[in-house]
Design goal:
The chain is about 20% helix and about 45% strand. The protein has about 80 residues and is α+β, with helices and mostly antiparallel strands. It has one domain. Strands 1-2-3 form a three-stranded antiparallel β-sheet. Strand 2 (about 20-30) and strand 3 (about 35-45) form a beta hairpin. The longest helix has 12 residues, at about 60-70. It is elongated and about 60 Å long. The N and C termini lie far apart (about 55 Å).
Length: about 80
């Protein structure tokens, strides 16, 4: 019997000079360990975006980078 698995992970994370962060999540469907399907979801987070926890919360490492980037931005950006 075939085994199916779904994997979701952040496959792109780009901090821009204005503080916005481009995020791409990849969803892979695997059959017996081999990828048989892949789809992407993209968004851009603004500085201190209230959706950051929802978008990045499953991967705290990226949420930490976002919060650090925003905390070190010069005032006025």
């Amino acid at each position: 019997m075939a085994t199916f698995e779904e994997r979701v992970f952040i496959s792109e994370f780009n901090v821009q000079s204005n503080g916005s962060i481009g995020v791409r999540k990849t969803t892979e469907v695997l059959k017996d360990g081999e990828v048989i399907s892949q789809k992407y979801w993209r968004t851009v987070l603004a500085v201190n975006d209230p959706q950051a926890n929802e978008v990045l919360g499953a991967e705290p490492w990226y949420l930490g980078i976002a919060n650090n980037a925003w905390a070190t931005m010069p005032q006025g950006n």
